[in-house]
Amino acid sequence: MPAELKAIFFDVGNTLLFPNRQRILGPLFERGVRPSEDHLRAIERQTKQEFDALMQSGAQGPGFWHIFYSHLLQELDLCDDDLRDSLTLATGVSANWCDIRPGTRDILQKLGKRYQTGVISNADGKIADVLARCGIADCFSAITDSGLVGQEKPHPGIFMAALESMRVPAASSLYVGDVYSVDYLGATRAGMQAVLFDVPGAYTETDLPRVGSLQELEVMLLRWLTPEAR
Question: Which of 91, 97, 106, 181 can bridge 17 by disulfide, Cβ–Cβ 3.0-4.6 Å?
Answer without folding.
Answer: 97
